[in-house]
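Incident log, support desk, overnight shift.

02:14 A customer reports that sequence design results differ from what the structure should imply. Their input is reproduced verbatim below. On-call engineer (initials T.W.) acknowledged and began investigating.
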């Protein structure tokens, strides 16, 4: 999503949603911004570490509300319009930390918890955290939590929580029945879609909810 005067792929409408002033001129309120949920910060960043300070800043006009600062390369490219900007950042497709944590997950699932722990702790060490030492279910849950910390804002979390079967652990409204009926998918807009396909059926959980 880099800005280029000839073949521009950057935009102000996606990464810019995370930011307020001083990155976006004149945006002093948080009403048009996607802040980070304060409860989420307390939940997943329960230990002092480097990432929490690097990836987050207090949002302008938001009191103690935090904004995600992974995508802060703002380019005011038009000299004739001081308010026209794009957010010019690399779009993350693969990261080494992602691969280590995926391998940790796979190693755990394949009966190699010791190797999974090595992969997990490599990422924790980089973040300034002490080595994790628990085993069993606690280790697998920590791998999931580490993915939430390391990859926050990169579009991975929902897929991770479904794949790793973490929803019921983290959210009380994800009951056994809801998960069995795949209630982690969004409901279909049947009023719009049924006109295009009369054989379409609503996702099971949303039939009666």
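02:41 Re-run completed on a clean worker. Output:
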């Amino acid at each position: 999503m880099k800005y280029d005067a000839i073949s521009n792929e950057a935009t102000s409408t996606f990464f810019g949603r995370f930011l307020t002033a001083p990155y976006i001129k004149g945006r002093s309120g948080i009403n048009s911004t996607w802040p980070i949920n304060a409860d989420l910060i307390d939940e997943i960043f329960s230990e002092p570490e480097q990432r929490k300070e690097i990836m987050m800043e207090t949002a302008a006009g938001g009191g103690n509300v935090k904004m995600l600062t992974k995508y802060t390369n703002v380019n005011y490219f038009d000299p004739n319009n001081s308010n026209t900007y794009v957010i010019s950042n690399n779009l993350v497709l693969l990261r080494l930390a992602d691969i280590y944590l995926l391998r940790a997950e796979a190693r755990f699932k394949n009966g190699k918890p010791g190797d999974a722990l090595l992969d997990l702790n490599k990422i924790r060490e980089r973040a300034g955290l002490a080595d994790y030492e628990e085993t069993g279910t606690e280790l697998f849950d920590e791998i999931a939590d580490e993915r939430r910390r390391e990859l926050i804002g990169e579009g991975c979390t929902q897929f991770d929580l479904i794949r790793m079967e973490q929803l019921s652990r983290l959210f009380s409204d994800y009951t056994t029945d809801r998960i069995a009926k795949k209630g982690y998918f969004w409901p279909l807009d049947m009023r719009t879609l049924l006109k295009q396909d009369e054989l379409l059926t609503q996702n099971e959980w949303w039939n009666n909810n």
